[in-house]
């Protein structure tokens, strides 16, 4: 058994397991698992590969080097809550990658974050992930290595976890809205996914907007007078949307896949739900009479941008008063707010040379692991409480933002002192959003990613689970240029 300095440094739960395929199976003590060992298991293969696709429309030019899981853009995986996936992942890309299961509470060695939880999977390499699915909801699968490039070129999949108890809510139809722009020249060639100006500001936007990969907004038929469950995901690396629709009969029923008591969209600020990169929202929409439509928009753009049109078709259903039916309550472990320890962080522009963590010696094995992780940009624009993530030129692993105890409760307060919004994501936990200083009326809800507006303080609370967990802005260029830290929970 070989124990590297890096494993010692990071305190991996177990290291150097001898097997052909590097694997996160069986390396985590049962106490840190999120499903019992007896949970039903499903074996799954997953391949990341490049494909050619006509992203600018069926008559448009061919784009090469589109990235997709199993060769399918935004492939959807769907399983019952309580299932454990054993995923044999193969990297058929020409570049290193990893798989991150955004929002899933899982043992940290399957979290897909190099170099904190695994090494990168080299081209042609394999990795076996242990992915328990303890919570119903809508999740997002993406790489955690060269994310700006790979997610930018399409590498993303959807993961829906169903709970049979949801059937009682009785939706008549379901509709997926995946927001992801393409950054393409008119000839169908990729443009640079990152620009220094974008990374230092709101991010580098795509040139072509798309829903579900298509540049023409989809039209989806749904039963007249029926209730549609719309599941929206912002898979874009940059864009922040204001999700809304032109109907008054629309209710936010889940955030990041976690049910909340239905809130009328009209009761939210500006009648919309603001969503940044990686955020999901479920909205129940009552369909109008046959032939009529409901249009779902992003109202944040200068002109409302049409994401999807729902078209009511006659199925003989009668009109009844709208009554949003709550989904079953989530069963996520909740923090004990009375005993919680409070930690405060600032989201800020980079402190530059005053960053607190020293560079690593070039011969440190961790230097190589960090350099390989490709989760690093060439420069630093952002910081969390004065420290920044590594850059390629200045390899450093910042010390953890906090050391936490497994099972203890924490309140993390984030204050954004920059001019830009930051959708902040904590890995491995579903947290309770306690307060938004700019949305005082918003009821508390569960989430894994939360927007912090400029000059806003947002408080989240969670019960910590053992592992090394990154905490970062999901505008991927912000993450690449410093807006990432980590918590060490032992
Ligand atoms: Cu979806 Cu570390 O992110
Ligand atoms: Cu950000």
Automatic annotation (TrEMBL):
Keywords per UniProt: Metal-binding, Oxidoreductase
Keyword presence, Cell inner membrane: no
Keyword Oxidoreductase: yes
Domain Plastocyanin-like: 63-165, 385-489
SUPFAM superfamilies, per the entry: Cupredoxins
Xref: InterPro entries: Cu-oxidase-like_N (IPR011707), Cu-oxidase_C (IPR011706), Cu-oxidase_fam (IPR045087), Cu_oxidase_CS (IPR033138), Cu_oxidase_Cu_BS (IPR002355), Cupredoxin (IPR008972), TAT_signal (IPR006311)
Matches recorded under Pfam families: Cu-oxidase_2, Cu-oxidase_3
GO molecular function terms listed in the Swiss-Prot or TrEMBL record: copper ion binding; oxidoreductase activity
GO CC terms: outer membrane-bounded periplasmic space
Protein name (Swiss-Prot/TrEMBL): Putative metallo-oxidoreductase protein
Species per Swiss-Prot/TrEMBL record: Azorhizobium caulinodans (strain ATCC 43989 / DSM 5975 / JCM 20966 / LMG 6465 / NBRC 14845 / NCIMB 13405 / ORS 571)
